[in-house]
């Protein structure tokens, strides 16, 4: 007789509005222009999404020099440095910008703070695509910090005017602690409220905390290079619950759940729901499942496509 397993699904989980918009931009561009279209960097950090778009005719590259002259080009949801935009313009590449509007909002804050002459501090992880894009969008030096200890090491006077920005996919609690350290050290310190961090990041982190109160273990579906997915697993563990980050059902090890009767499942903002359903199907091969979804915040956010794509009918579009 197979052991029973109660599966509780976090709500919300999976795709956010920025990810849905980015994927839709690639799909609409392929429909409008025919394949191939070129995407700089992974459109979102998920291998299944990339594979599905490649099958439709997208070609993913890391730098613009890999894009042929005249080819339709798409910037990923993470945003790009201004130098990339300038290079594309100089080459005359037809571009669609899939930068998440909430990431663009961070860029706009940074530009404004630079114009005000403030010393800008970006809270984020070095090397992440969103951080690289934000650093390259602000026309002033930017100090990158990730921890309270990094704040203490900043080479700035106590009376220096400071403004902070945040990577949108960080742990809200972790970000709050770093902001508090900045405000404690600098007398003139301004920046957006923690509530101004990406709604999807906050909602998914709130949901995983609620999930942790009800289960024995948690599986987070998402890519290892997905910052928001990694944070979800870290938050689950901080709540005292064993948690694993898996890219797909094949990465799951049934031995993890020895003795587990209640399992929570969530997914990062760039993970398609099909990956969750495949994981549930694999669990059902060895356990008797009962699956239910927790109540959570209902998201009704949506972002429109770029005006150029909205105006153009299929196969008649011209990028702009």
Features:
Cobalt-precorrin-4 Transmethylase, domain 1; four-stranded parallel sheet; 11 helices; 3 domains; Rossmann fold; 320 residues; five-stranded parallel sheet
Largest sheet: 5 strands, parallel
Number of domains: 3
Tell me, what is the CATH class of the largest domain?
A: Alpha Beta
The CATH architecture of the largest domain is: 3-Layer(aba) Sandwich
**Low-pLDDT runs:** 314-320
In total, the number of strands is 13
CATH topology of the largest domain: Cobalt-precorrin-4 Transmethylase, domain 1
User: Whole-number average pLDDT?
Assistant: 94
Rg, Cα atoms, Å: 21 Å
Helix content: 25-40%
Can you identify the CATH superfamily of the largest domain? 4-hydroxy-3-methylbut-2-enyl diphosphate reductase, catalytic domain
**How large is the count of helical segments?**
11
Shape: flat
How are the secondary structure elements laid out?
Layout: E1 4-9, H1 17-33, E2 37-40, H2 47-56, E3 58-61, E4 73-75, H3 82-91, E5 95-97, H4 101-115, E6 119-123, H5 129-135, E7 142-145, H6 148-152, E8 162-166, H7 172-185, E9 189-190, H8 199-212, E10 217-221, H9 227-238, E11 243-246, E12 262-267, H10 273-283, E13 288-293, H11 307-311
Helix pairs in contact: 8-9
